[in-house]
Amino acid sequence: MAKKKTALFECQHCGFTSPKWMGKCPNCGTWDSLVELTEQQQEVVKLTTSPSGRSSKAQLITEIDEELVQRYSSNDVELDLVLGGGIVPGSLTLIGGSPGVGKSTLLLKVGANIAQTGRKVLYITGEESEGQVKLRADRLGSVVDLLYLVSETRLEQVLIELEHRSYDFLIVDSIQTLYSENITSAPGSVTQVRQITFELMRIAKERGIAIFIIGHITKEGSIAGPRVLEHMVDAVLYFEGDSSQELRILRGFKNRFGATSEIGVFEMRAEGLISAKDISSRFFNRNKSQPGSALTVVMEGSRPIILEVQALVSETQAPNPKRQATGFDNNRLNMLLALLERKLEIPLTHYDVFINITGGIKITETAADLAVLAAIISSFRDRVISKETVFIGEVSLVGDIREVFQLDQRLREAKLQKITKALIAKKPLDTHKMKCYEIDEVTKLIEWF
Ligand SMILES: Nc1ncnc2c1ncn2[C@@H]1O[C@H](COP(=O)(O)OP(=O)(O)O)[C@@H](O)[C@H]1O
Ligand SMILES: [Mg+2]
Questions:
Q1: What pLDDT digit, counting tens, does each position of 108-144 carry?
Q2: Which residue minimizes the CA distance to atom 10 of ligand 1?
Q3: Measured between alpha carbons, how far is 82 from 85 in angstroms, rounded to an integer?
Q4: Hey, which end of the chain has fewer CB within 10 Å, N or C?
Q5: Which residue has its alpha carbon closest to ligand 1 atom 6?
Q6: Ligand 1: residues whose CB is within 6 Å?
Q7: Distance from the alpha carbon of residue 89 to the mean position of ligand 2, in angstroms
């Protein structure tokens, strides 16, 4: 007796699946986005949503062999750092970033670097012609032996090319332009993206090819296509930065083969992206002192970076004043503003407050709290804070200033950058010849203005 066919529908917007067709996706609310999957596509959904398709017999942990991760260098210090040491053969890495940030530029250079180590590299572009890519390669100094280019959007043709030559490294620019002729949904749709990523993953594992996939980012900041894409790949990196400025940050978001704490910093030049040297001093302007600006030192992985927090506090008649942070957590900003009102009696209810972190960096730790408060007070009172001072401290809900980890490294870096004073929760034994001022409560901050 033939197996009874079960139907499965998938939302092409968010990847939600349902055994019944529906006019509106209950998960994301998009109308008319559910399409029926073929049996083969259903299989892929099953394989990519269940944790493992392998046998589930338990083994004693003492008897399991460790998986040794072999890596090779990408020939780029910053990329190696973000990847946790280098490129892992057979791994699938997704690089996300907004248009124009430099994803194609970065990966073309990476491809050329790897080709120079004697490995065969294939760059698949669905966005540009071979000639356009060649033009860029000329500019970047990336015209090297063993780097192959193909302008192709059909997955089936890519598979034929992979049969043709034994590549070690593959770049897909971008996942949203590649499509399979066997799938009826549009290129870039959930079903396409999932199926193609699945196919690429199979090839990567089977042949030990390392594959880098470029993914565009939606307005909301996530990689276009289903979340499942992020679950399927081994590593997810985001390429960030303000395209009007030259600094770019490559940040690990997920990595099955290493930590995600390190960032890579690049500089966009006419000749391409180069590793930024002396990154610590690149994110602040030492010479210009204006009200609303305060310096802090944050840790990006193992590296301390001096950042400038800018605040703009301006009077408003609107019933709901604006509170907006770029590069800093909005909820945290609201908490700090509440503290200012409560503890320092600074009446901000009739003021808009904007916070910006220079250089396109996103602060992910609380050590910058004190600097954010200082910048806000500085803007509110229209008093300049000297660029000789850094503010390092976490602010608690009750208004205490807390110590932060790796203070020693932060102070050492500040000293190197010729900063002379630090406002911190507790004076350390070694002050690195900085003038350290203890400040254990937010109420004491006001004495500085
Ligand atoms: N001829 C050029 N000289 C200098 N910079 C360029 C040139 N062409 C492009 N760029 C820079 O490269 C960026 C585009 O990078 P690209 O790698 O195509 O981005 P993405 O692939 O992320 O969309 C542009 O924002 C621009 O700043
Ligand atoms: Mg591109």
A1: 999 999 999 999 999 999 999 999 999 999 999 999 9
A2: 270
A3: 8
A4: N
A5: 270
A6: 97, 99-105, 139, 243, 268, 270
A7: 24
Residues 6+ apart with CB under 8 A from 49: 228
**239 Cα nearest atom in ligand 1:** 22
Q: Is residue 40 exposed (0-12), middle (13-18) or buried (19+ Cβ within 10 Å)?
A: exposed
Domain residue spans of the chain: 7-47, 77-277, 281-448
Topology classification of domain 281-448: Ribosomal Protein S5; domain 2 (3.30.230)
pTM: 0.79
Which atom of ligand 1 is nearest to 106's Cα?
Answer: 17
77-277 has CATH 3.40.50.300 classification = yes
184 phi/psi in degrees, rounded to 5: -80, -25
Amino acid letter, 316: T
Residue type, 110: V
Residue nearest to atom 3 of ligand 1 (CA): 270
Nearest CA to ligand 1 atom 7: 270
Residue recorded with tokens 């254990």: 440
What pLDDT digit, counting tens, does each position of 371-425 carry?
A: 999 999 999 999 999 999 999 999 999 999 999 999 999 999 999 888 999 999 9
